[in-house]
Specification:
The relative contact order is 0.08. It is elongated and about 80 Å long. The strands form two sheets. Strands 3-2-1-4-5-6-7-8 form an eight-stranded mixed beta sheet, with helices on both faces. A four-stranded parallel beta sheet has the order 10-9-11-12, sandwiched between helices. Helix 7 (171-181) links the parallel strand 7 and strand 8 (189-193). The protein is built from 13 helices and twelve strands. The chain is 41% helix and 14% strand. The protein is an alpha/beta fold. The structure holds ligand SAJ. The site of ligand SAJ has 18 residues, from helix 8.
Length: 400
């Protein structure tokens, strides 16, 4: 069996490699010639532990090769980005372009699957495009949607062990897609229809965003109430059926902070809680900026000199080096823009350097700072002893 993966990014490349490792002949297609070249040379263009060796295996044994253009296959997977236009309007143009690119190669009996996070109804819309171009294929090919739910940094394990939701435009398509994924997925493959599978992905991430918004709102209330929010949540979670998540400096990454807009864009009057949760999580970052600026002003009033400030963390979540959509990065930029020529030290232990920020070692920054702002709960920060002579703004529960 041969499969064509359209898109060799954070999901397409690992999935292609795992499928190839399980004996499926793979052609991986990407519009970026450098990605194609690096992949064929056995070099990873993304960061994912353990994936490099697997890539070299499947390249060396000829089970995977990368190409700029699609090749005739038995199954086609659309794993390209679905970014947003300006006003949080989902942009499915990459999904449509990838679909149109494979249409000439489709033949009776083929499987066509979309994995990209998409607005509800996208799979049916792509089916319409296929049948308009190739009417003879109507009801002759299998079309389904199968979202991914892997956690960056643990992709290899999760691609094999996570349950997956498989939604066909009809039951034969669902079964055909299940047949494909059973070749390498050990998790349970759950059957549904395409619209439900599309909405399931959006639901998973939106539910997490709403839960985080609850924790962030609680942290703002507790700050005003003079309550330690970390202690409060820890106690509330002792209840057997309560599971409150952790407050942070905002919500980052290109998933949780993004996917809820797929729902609010299509259901604006019905998705009030989801929309408000996005606003709360975005507001939390703004709130953190104000807290830092106020602490700096307060320090100057008390000590009659500018403070040294350590901004601890730039990544979008703990113990990774990914800064995409990072609230911490936003906060650091806003504090630096304050331009009051205080000495602002920027810390990110998972990066050696950054093209915009001059980075300081986390211990040095902690020692030198008058004000320490913990933005991301990186493990090394938890080794720093609490120093009551410093002003500590702990937005991520380092000392919880
Ligand atoms: N965060 C908090 N408090 C928490 C948990 C997370 O503030 O209690 C913040 C993190 O700091 C980060 C953001 O939320 O800024 C997102 O973190 P995350 O832990 O949700 O990680 P992601 O975005 O890398 O992965 C999520 C996962 N989805 C769910 O857990 C429902 C992952 O399974 C998905 O595959 C991924 O989104 C995706 O690609 O959609």
């Amino acid at each position: 069996m041969k499969a064509c993966f359209m898109g060799l990014g954070y999901i397409g490349l690992p999935t292609s490699i795992i499928a190839a490792k399980h004996g499926i002949q793979i052609v991986g297609v990407d519009i970026n010639a450098q990605v194609v070249e690096k992949t064929n040379a056995g070099e990873l263009h993304i960061i994912e532990p353990g994936l490099g060796d697997l890539l070299r295996d499947v390249i060396d044994c000829g089970m995977l090769h990368a190409s700029i253009t699609p090749e005739e296959s038995d199954a086609y997977f659309i794993v390209v980005p679905t970014p947003f236009k300006g006003n949080h309007e989902p942009d499915v143009s990459y999904v449509e372009a990838a679909t149109r690119a494979v249409i000439p190669f489709l033949k009776s009996g083929d499987l066509f699957v979309i994995e990209s996070t998409s607005p509800v109804g996208t799979t049916e819309a792509m089916a319409e495009i296929i049948y308009t171009e190739r009417p003879e294929l109507k009801d002759k090919i299998y079309i389904a949607y199968c979202p991914e739910r892997v956690l960056p940094g643990n992709v290899i394990y999760e691609l094999i062990h996570n349950d997956r939701v498989i939604g066909g435009i009809n039951s034969e398509s669902t079964d055909k897609a299940i047949e494909f994924y059973s070749q390498f997925v050990q998790g349970t493959l759950h059957k549904t229809n395409a619209r439900t599978a599309e909405m399931c992905k959006l639901t998973e991430n939106s539910s997490r965003d709403v839960q985080i918004a609850f924790a962030n709102e609680l942290s703002i209330i507790c700050d005003k109430a003079g309550i330690n929010v970390w202690e409060l949540i820890n106690l509330a979670n002792k209840h057997p059926r309560v599971h409150i998540l952790q407050p942070g400096c905002g919500v980052g990454g290109h998933c949780i902070a993004v996917d809820p807009y797929f729902i609010t864009a299509d259901f604006p009057s019905e998705s009030k809680l989801i929309a408000t949760s996005r606003e709360i999580n975005n507001y939390k970052s703004f709130w953190c900026v104000e807290k830092v600026k106020n602490a700096m002003l307060q320090f100057e009033l008390n000590k009659h000199r500018k403070p040294v400030v350590a901004m601890m963390g730039l990544a979008f979540k703990p113990n990774i080096d990914d800064l995409r959509e990072s609230p911490a990065k936003y906060i650091v930029s806003k504090v630096l823009q304050g331009g009051n020529d205080s000495d602002i030290l920027v810390v990110e232990p998972n990066l050696k350097e950054h093209q915009v920020f001059k980075l300081t070692d986390f211990r040095t920054a902690y020692e030198r700072a008058d004000i320490v702002v913990f933005l991301v709960a990186h493990d090394p920060f938890k080794t720093l002893p609490f120093n009551k002579n410093k002003v500590i703004l702990d937005f991520c529960g380092i000392y919880k």
